[in-house]
What does this fold into?
Amino acid sequence: MKNIKLIEVPSEIGAGTRGASLGIDAIKIAALDFMSNFFIHFPSEKIAVENKLLYEPIESPYAKRIKGIVSMYEKVSHSISETLKSNFFPVVLSGDHSIAGATIAGIKMARPESKLGVIWIDAHADLHTPYTTPSGNMHGMPLSAAINEDNSECAVHRLDPETTRLWNELKNFGNISPKVLPEDIVYISLRDFEKEEKALIDKYGMKVITTKEVRSKGPENIVRSVTRYFSDCTDIYISFDVDSLDSSISKGTGTPVGNGLREREAEDLISKFMQDRKVCCFELTEVNPTLDKENLMAEIAFNILQRSVNVLMMS
It folds into this structure.
C-alpha cells in the first residue's frame, strides 16, 4: 500500500486566462458536495505561490512571468523531491500546467539515475519555447523545458538576455538536462497544437495516442501498449490536464477543445495506469471554476482523482 501525500500548488502565473488558482478549492468543494472526506485522509502541503505577479507589468513578453516560474520550480521541485525521498507518493493538484515542469524536475532530483517516462493526457502538446510561442504563456512550455529544447529551427522571436538566462535556468534546473527523453513521452488525446510543436513531435518521433484510438481500442489495450512502450523506463509520471476531456464537459478550463475524452474514458485510463508499480507521481491540473457552471469541471476532476487514488491505495 502506498503512502500518499497531496501537494497543492494554486499557481496560475503560467496561464493566459485567469482563475486556475481557484481550481484546487473548487475540487475540495466538490468533495464536500459528494460528502467525501478525501481531503482529510491524507497529509498535504500547500506551496506558496507567486500570483501577485499577475498585478505587475510583464517583463518578458515571450515567457510571461518567467521569474515567478523559476521561483515555483525551486519550491515545487524541492517539495516533490523530499516527498519521494520520504517514501510518499506525491499527488499534485496544480493551477496551471507550467507546474508540471517543476514536478518533473523534483522527480529527477530525487531519482537522478531514473529513466523517466511521462504520460501526458492533454489536448495540447505544451512543447512551445520562448522562441516559438504564439502567446508567451508558460503553461505551453513545460515539456520543452523538460527535454531541454529551444526549437531554434522554428524560432520566430528573438529574446532579451534576461529571458534567455531564465529560460536556460529552467531547462537546466537541478543541474539535470534533459530530464526526460522526447521518446519517453506519450501523449494521450492530443489534438490542438501549432506547426512548431508538430515539428518537434515529428523530429523525435514522439508517441501520440488520439482520442479515436482510445475509443476504438479501449482504455485497457491503450494502457497495455503504453506499459510495453515504457518497458525500459524505471519511473513513470502521469500528468492529467482536464482539457483532455471533451469541450462539451470541460467548460471549466482555460482552453477547452472538442473531440476529447469522455469522463469515463479518462477515469478508466488513469485508474488502470495507476496499477503500474512504476508510476511514482500523479498531477491533475487546469481546473478553472470561474469559467464553469455549477462546478461541473471540479466535480469530474474530483471523481477521477478519488478513483485514481483508491487504486493506488490498493496496489
Strands lie at 4-9, 44-46, 89-94, 116-121, 185-188, 207-209, 235-241, 279-285. The domain at 4-314 is CATH 3.40.800.10 (Arginase; Chain A). The radius of gyration is 18 Å.
